[in-house]
Design a protein that fits this description.
6-stranded mixed sheet, 14 helices, 15 strands, alpha+beta, 392 residues
Amino acid sequence: MKFKNEEDDYKGLLKIFNKLKESNEEKKRQGLHDYSLINALLKKTDEVHLHSNFIYSMINPKGSHYHEGKFLELFLDSINESDFINIDNARVYKEKGKIDLLVEDGEHYLIIENKLRAVDQKHQISRYIDYVIKNYLDGDNEHSHQKIRVVYLSEYKAKPSIKSESIIGFELKDGVLTRNDEKISALTLATKNTKINFNRVKHSNELWKWVEESKEYLEDKVNSKTLIYAFEEYRLILERLKNNNWRNIMRLDEYVLHKIDKKDEKRMYDFMSEASKRLNDYLYTKLYEEIDKLFPEIERTELTLNGKAFKVFTKERCNKWFKEIGHKDKYRDIGFIFNEKYFFALGKTNISYGLCDVGWKVNIKTNRQNLQTNTEKNIFDIIDDLKNLVDK
């Protein structure tokens, strides 16, 4: 970035940043913000820890909300499945048979697959149907069409991807899964021509309705403020999921586009462009220097996994990993073991670290894209994690 007087230009850019910060702070003081405690702790697209856990905690009749099956009743009504499950006998499970949410009343079984950004797993829906037939219907596949339904809870995708073969053995048409392939009978217990209802539900539509009706139900109930607040928090998540931005707190790009003059806009463009180019230089240097302090090279030993030796962790290889320089086989699988206790590894895209006796695959923490976009975990989180690991 070339300026006649770099110090003055950076001071000018700093003033622009400060104006944006002051504007947002003023909005916060006025209460004009979309702060969400849930979103501060978890990503809005976190299917398991956010959406599945919250929904499960509310629709579980035995949950600590003490409203028995009411939230489940409202939930089933909002997704048009109220005629399928007997609320009085309903039970709800999370991650049973790896199914995100399973609702059953002893006669009928509602499989709920909560899908946001995660990819569809191979044979996933078919395996869930098979699990219910085998474990709940005693293998009675002839009646599975009467007893099983699938809800595909997805904001963006109308159906599982063809590539994943998630519904292998079935054809999806007009909201019905039809068993149609005898060649893979070993993979799917459902008999030929079995028809199972497939209901695609959007988070921001049907779940929004569920949230609003649940809040309305709670309005005249004693000691309901905490539950109302929980639903309001989740509503903010659904709103962000739909609109994909904050309504009131302005982002830097929005501020540059609409709130500053053309001269400053060009300066900010140059600044953001330069910052983007230099980000990976900063990331790899920062990470390498901190690791060198925590895990001195003299005490590092070779990391071997399943008979494969990882490349020696060096500053140059760390640089190539962040910038994806050359063929992936040249920069992937870099790492070390320290004092026979800790490990650190850069895989194809993932960064993982932890205690050797746990296994590095179990301890994947984040990936390259998350660090480059400052989502989920940033470089300072990684460094803090490593320091805490050593301090224990």
